[in-house]
């Protein structure tokens, strides 16, 4: 008998455990109703791991992450850890997972659900029906480049250094993943960098063009400076299909794109690496939002980003696209029915539901789907 696919759940800090508890309900639902059963294990990451082990990611957890079929992560970080040494900050746990699993392609879809179009800070016609995909390079660039550090400058001051560094292979592999996605969408890729001021940006532009010309000439490719890209994202985001960009620009541009959809609490992500022996890609799924310490433990957090991250796992790790569609449709249904967590309330909008009530509403919508 084939064994069940395995999931490692890392709830993390802040609202992470609360939103992940709702994902557990969804996982259980698929087991009970669709015969899709996972072997689920749970472990610590971020500040929670630091509190228990003095490190934001224990070696045993890292080893487990390498073995499972997919990792689901909640969020890391919090003010309690702000004064920790840089090397043990909660964020280092997440960055270690990304780096050691070599998850170079970070998919951040920004979709505007119809029911939320009036909630965006932009006008309805600018965002209604929006469906774009940001592909962020995730394992290189200024996040990891050497040299890095803070040094005395020997003149009584200090100097802080980070290095933006990209190789041909690093650019080409993430470009390929963007072109592949575009072929299954609207066949358009826009690559963003700062080739006007950065040599790494010039290389980025040339290598993306190379991959296009040699391997994906059928896909429409354009290039844009990343600052202009930020502006175009709020001016007329529907001009884009797939955006491919580096680690730091992708971090910024994806937060910006998230707000187009109404709330950061809505956006999932998938971080994918090379295929494993079983053909599945190395994979970690997490909401784009952070640990939101200001609302943690109050039942206010929106679990939808985390739930939709599990939908991405169904689609990208387990080849269960129809089941991912089912889950996304259930979320859409709940929003259309007017169910709203606090982040999705208009000023005069009535009473918000709790995190758990939102999870229950999604389960109820799933029940009507079968
Ligand atoms: C993200 C986050 C992370 C990043 C932090 C938590 C390290 O902002 O996933 O966008 O900067 O990549
Ligand atoms: Mg970010």
Structure, described:
This protein has 370 residues and is an alpha/beta fold. It has two domains: 1-116 and 267-370, Isopropylmalate Dehydrogenase (3-Layer(aba) Sandwich); 131-260, Isopropylmalate Dehydrogenase, CATH 3.40.718.10. The chain is 40% helix and 21% strand. Strands 2-1-3-12-11-4-5-10-8-9 form a ten-stranded mixed beta sheet, with helices on both faces. It has a two-stranded antiparallel ribbon with strand order 6-7. Helix 1 (16-34) packs across helix 10 (304-316), helix 10 runs antiparallel to helix 11 (321-336) and helix 11 packs across helix 12. It is globular. The two termini are 27 Å apart.
What can be said about this structure in brief?
40% of the residues lie in helices and 21% in strands. It is of the alpha/beta class and 370 residues long. Helix 1 links the parallel strand 1 and strand 2.
Shape: globular
Q: What is the number of helices?
A: 12
Percentage beta strand: 15-25%
- Estimated helix fraction: 40-55%
The parts where pLDDT drops under 50 for at least 5 residues are none
Structural class by SSE content: alpha/beta
- Gyration radius (Cα, Å) is 20 Å
* CATH-defined superfamily of the largest domain: Isopropylmalate Dehydrogenase
């Amino acid at each position: 008998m084939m064994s069940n696919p395995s999931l490692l759940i890392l709830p993390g800090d802040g609202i992470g455990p609360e939103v992940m508890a709702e994902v557990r309900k969804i996982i259980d639902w698929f087991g009970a109703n669709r015969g899709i059963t996972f072997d689920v294990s749970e472990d610590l990451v971020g500040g929670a791991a630091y509190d228990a082990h003095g490190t934001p990611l224990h070696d045993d957890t890292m080893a487990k992450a390498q073995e499972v079929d997919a990792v689901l992560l909640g969020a890391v970080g919090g003010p309690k850890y702000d004064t920790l040494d840089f090397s043990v900050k909660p964020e280092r746990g997440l960055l270690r997972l990304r780096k050691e699993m070599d998850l170079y392609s970070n998919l951040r879809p920004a979709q505007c659900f119809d029911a939320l179009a009036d909630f965006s800070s932009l006008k309805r016609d600018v965002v209604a029906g929006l469906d774009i995909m940001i592909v962020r390079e995730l394992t290189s660039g200024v996040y990891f480049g050497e040299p890095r550090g803070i040094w005395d400058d020997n003149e009584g001051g200090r100097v802080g250094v980070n290095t933006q560094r990209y190789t041909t292979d690093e650019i080409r592999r993430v470009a390929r993943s963007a072109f592949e996605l575009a072929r299954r969408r609207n066949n358009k890729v826009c690559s963003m960098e700062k080739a006007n001021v950065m040599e790494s940006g010039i290389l980025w532009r040339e290598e993306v063009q190379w991959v296009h010309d040699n391997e994906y000439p059928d896909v429409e490719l354009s290039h844009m400076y990343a600052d202009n890209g930020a502006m175009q994202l709020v001016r007329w985001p529907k001009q884009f299909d797939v955006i491919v960009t580096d680690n730091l620009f992708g971090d910024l541009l994806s937060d910006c794109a998230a707000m187009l959809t109404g709330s950061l609490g809505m956006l999932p992500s998938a971080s994918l690496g090379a295929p494993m022996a079983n053909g599945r890609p190395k994979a970690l799924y997490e909401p784009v939002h952070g640990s939101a310490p200001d609302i943690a433990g109050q039942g206010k957090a929106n679990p939808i980003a985390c739930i939709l991250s599990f939908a991405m796992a169904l689609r990208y790790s387990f080849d269960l696209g129809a089941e991912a569609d089912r889950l996304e449709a259930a979320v859409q249904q709940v929003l259309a029915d007017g169910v709203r967590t606090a982040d999705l309330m208009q000023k005069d909008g009535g009473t918000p539901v709790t995190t758990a009530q939102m999870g229950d509403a999604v389960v109820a919508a799933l029940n009507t789907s079968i």
